[in-house]
Design goal:
Blueprint lengths: L6 H10 L5 H14 L11 E9 L5 E7 L16 E3 H5 L9 H10 L13 H6 L4 E5 L2 H7 L4 H8 L3 E4 L6 H13 L5 E4 L3 E6 L2 H22 L9 H25 L6 E5 L2 H14 L9 H4 L4 E2 L8 H26 L16 E4 L3 E6 L2 H23 L9 H8 L2 H8 L10 E4 L5 H12 L3 E6 L3 H13 L4 E5 L5 H15 L4 E4 L14 H29 L3 E6 L12 H21 L4 E8 L12 H14 L3 H11 L8 H12 L9 E4 L10
Parallel strand pairs: 5-6, 9-10, 12-13, 12-15, 13-14, 15-16, 16-17, 17-18
Antiparallel strand pairs: 1-2, 1-4, 2-3, 4-7, 6-7, 8-11, 10-11
Helix pairs in contact: 1-2, 6-9, 6-14, 10-13, 10-19, 10-20, 11-14, 17-24, 19-20, 20-21
């Protein structure tokens, strides 16, 4: 555990926030330092505070507690994420013996200096009851490793002199009271270890509490090293290579069954194929099917992982049956667990779904399951931390010791946890994985924007090169957890399959394919170059055929339906002179999509088309490849400049509408969200062109 403190970095931050008390700026700095260590803090975990002087409404000095707000991340902490509360008012709650979560939340908000500020951490009273100026609380892996085994309390006391070990108590007001009593009994304590929870350090300054945290965790790490009897082996390169092959076969089957068993909901699967994890799961599966390191993880992981052993992925039908049996068994066990404990619920809470969030698979490693990639990544990081920590305990010759079922249930079915889930954004494409071809062009990027805004994981594909990299980076900056860029040539079956394999390895599977890549060519028939026509045929027709073919194969394997949308054109219905190559090849693609809708309907795979005309970019940074080809000829023929040509296309439709790429994206979204039972249909996106109306 390395001490990262830098006085020069602190001074730089002080200059960034000149109006803040120096003590508060120092606490923001130390909080960010703590969050740089994944072995201390993961994904918004932990909380910190500092006691400093503020001002009341009348400008009079007031002793305040500045504590991290709920939902904020220490790694990016700013003044808005560490609101001030009236310290004296908070300390009066030492007189209270019992308080439920809702009442505590109300009381904390009552004492905020700014009533519009974010909710203080659930541990705000813990920080208020500790008399030191600066307080840090983390979920250090090393401390949990020593705690989560028989004799853990004695081991921690011997490892961390001056620290008091507090038996497990539910977070919130019960923990605040336990901390109060521990400090009353041990007024000279240097810090606290909270069993199955974490570690608290304090000091007169932010640096003192930070230094003590690093020192204490370093001592715990050294103790683990000294007690390790046999470091666990790591999987070989050959085992890892085989696991990578197996996950491509397993994930679509697993993802499809998860969807079927959750009424059609889509899940993102993130594999954990790493040498230490694979070795652990291969050799110690039974020991790993146990509870979490801390109940704080339950909202992401559930109480227990699911084991998926003896799996033969070579035979898909046998593998599917084996996976289904394991999932149904897990569901039944979860429902039984809920029924055993539900009678103790103090408030009526809806039961969570009974599907696993962590799956252990010998021969592969582990898989995290999430409603989208962001939440899946959190589950993945917790899963890795949990397995590595349990592996360290096994290496010490000990067995993992977790909390009892009633403690786990109380944390999982706690009103505050349900409140967090209820207030997550419910977008129409959350959990769905969409692949868009030709994404680096105007129409493709417009489609990607609409899908990403509705929560989809978007696979941004186009030919390899500067355009894909440039536009892809723009999307990654705007949707960092939702966009995955991958080069793909739609005329190459191997290239398409490689892209599909990459998507399966990253997310588990696909739900929507948007076939948008295409080429245009301006030429009269009598002057047409056959080679140029054949190039359009390869991209527009054969590319569509290959996407339909491989997409159908994948979606059928997944077994939970899916959607394919072809970006067609008004030229299918109303072709233009000197545009025969484009009109003919797009008509061929359109017809293939219609046939696919007939052939795939019994697998609940819907195939539909959108038919735009004269689409202009929503963003000057992303130009249309089609217009780069045909625009100059059209402008020359009509004696117009670029803006004039745009007005021409706008004026020729019935609605006099400027048709943009985002409009095409909305039409794709209509089909992808299945608002009507429709397949084999075409939506015109052209402002109204009677000659181009599908018929």
């Amino acid at each position: 555990m390395r001490n990262r403190w830098s006085e020069s970095e602190l001074l730089e931050l002080v200059s960034t926030y000149p109006g803040l008390p120096v003590e508060l700026t120092a606490k923001i700095y130390s909080s960010r330092l703590l969050a740089q260590e994944p072995s201390l803090i993961l994904h918004g975990g932990g909380n910190t505070s500092v006691k400093a002087q503020g001002q009341n409404f009348f400008g009079e000095p007031l002793d305040c507690l500045y504590v991290k707000a709920s939902g904020f991340d220490l790694s990016t902490l700013t003044p808005e994420g560490i609101p001030a509360l009236d310290l004296a008012a908070l300390q009066r709650y030492k007189q209270v013996e019992k308080m439920d979560d809702q009442r505590m939340t109300n009381e904390l908000r009552r004492h905020l200096l700014d009533p519009q500020a974010a909710n203080p951490s659930i541990e705000a009273l813990v920080h208020a009851f500790i008399p030191a100026q600066s307080v840090d609380h983390t979920h250090a892996d090393a401390v949990l490793t020593l705690c989560c085994q028989e004799g853990g309390k004695a081991l921690l006391e011997a490892t961390l002199p001056g620290f008091v070990v507090v038996d497990y108590v539910e977070a919130g007001f019960p923990l605040a009271k336990a901390v109060q009593k521990a400090l009353e009994a041990h007024p000279k304590a240097r810090g606290l270890v909270l069993a199955w929870h974490g570690i608290i350090t304090w000091g007169a300054t932010a640096r003192e509490s930070y230094d003590l945290m690093i020192e204490a965790v370093g001592l715990a790490e050294e103790k683990i090293r000294s007690l390790t009897q046999s470091p666990l082996p790591e999987a070989s390169a050959e085992e890892l290579e085989e696991a990578t092959k197996r996950i491509k076969l397993l994930s679509p089957l697993l993802r499809g069954l998860l969807s079927q068993l959750s009424g059609g909901k889509r899940w993102v699967l993130l594999p954990l194929i790493e040498a230490p994890v694979l070795a652990l799961v291969n050799r110690h599966l039974d020991a790993l099917v146990s509870g979490p390191l801390t109940p704080d993880h339950l909202i992401r992981t559930k109480a227990l992982p699911m084991a998926l052993a003896d799996l033969d992925v070579v035979d898909p039908s046998l593998a599917r049956e084996r996976i289904k049996e394991a999932l149904e068994r897990y569901q039944k066990e979860y429902e039984t667990y809920y029924d055993r404990q539900a009678g103790r619920l103090e408030e009526q809470l809806e039961r969570f779904d009974s599907l696993p969030r962590m799956i252990l698979v010998p021969g592969i490693g582990a898989i995290a399951v999430g409603p989208n990639a962001r939440h899946g990544q959190i589950a993945l990081d917790i899963l890795r931390q949990t397995l590595v920590t349990k592996g360290q305990i096994l290496g010490m010759g000990k067995n993992f010791l977790g909390l009892t079922e009633d403690h786990l249930f109380d944390m999982e079915y706690r009103g505050l946890q349900h409140y967090k889930l209820r207030h997550q954004t419910h977008l129409s494409m959350v959990g769905r994985v969409a692949l868009v071809t030709g994404a680096a062009g105007a129409i493709g990027s417009g489609i990607c924007h609409e899908l990403a805004q509705e929560g989809a994981q978007v696979i941004f594909t186009d030919l390899a090169g500067e355009n894909l990299e440039r536009v892809g980076q723009m999307f990654l900056a705007q949707y960092p957890t939702q966009v995955f860029c991958h080069p793909m040539d739609v005329t190459s079956e191997a290239s398409i399959q490689a892209c599909f394999d990459a998507v399966v390895s990253r997310y588990g599977g696909l739900d929507l394919l948007v076939i948008n890549a295409g080429l245009a060519y301006v030429s009269k028939l009598e002057e047409m170059e056959l080679a140029r026509f054949q190039l359009l045929e390869r991209v527009n027709v054969e590319g569509t055929l290959l996407m339909l073919k491989l997409g159908a194969k994948h979606l059928k394997t997944q077994g939970c339906g899916g959607d394919m949308v072809l970006v067609s054109t008004k030229n299918v219905f109303s072709p233009s002179a000197s545009f025969g190559a484009y009109s003919a090849t797009k008509a061929g693609a359109h017809q293939l999509a219609r046939i696919a809708s007939l052939e795939l309907a019994d697998s609940d795979i819907r195939v539909n088309m959108v038919s735009p005309d004269g689409v202009f970019s929503d963003d000057d940074k992303v130009k249309s490849g089609l217009w780069a080809t045909v625009g100059p000829d059209r402008m020359k023929a009509r004696g117009l400049d670029e803006k004039g040509l745009e007005r021409y296309y706008q004026d020729r439709n019935l609605l006099k509408a400027r048709v943009t790429a985002r409009h095409v994206g909305k039409a794709v979204l209509f089909f992808a969200t299945r608002q009507t039972p429709t397949t084999g249909a075409t939506i015109p996106v052209d402002g109204g062109l009677p000659d181009a109306t599908p018929r």
